[in-house]
Write a structure and sequence with these properties.
Helix content is 26%, strand content 46%. Strands 1, 2, 3 and 4 form a four-stranded mixed beta sheet that branches. It starts with a strand and ends in a 9-residue tail after the last strand.
């Protein structure tokens, strides 16, 4: 059986407010994906979007859909 997780990755609001737009930092995104991979997650889809913020700015974001085999519950856990 599989389990899924949806994560929204976006840059800070500060860059968007000061610059009017904020782009994704590939090094931070890579670190986040590797952290999830160490926990057994794998990416099955990434969707790019522009998110509006405070009516005057936008920032780039990714919706990342992750999947892994469901881990059995520890013995005695209900």
């Amino acid at each position: 059986m599989k389990e899924y997780k949806a994560v929204i990755y976006q840059e800070s609001m500060l860059g968007s407010l000061l610059l009017g737009q904020s782009k994704i930092d590939p090094e931070k995104l890579t670190k986040m994906l590797n952290d999830f991979a160490r926990e057994g997650w794998r990416v099955i889809e990434i969707i790019r979007e522009q998110r509006r913020m405070l009516l005057v700015a936008s920032r780039e974001a990714f919706l990342v859909v992750l999947e892994r085999d469901k881990r059995p519950a520890p013995a005695g856990a209900n």
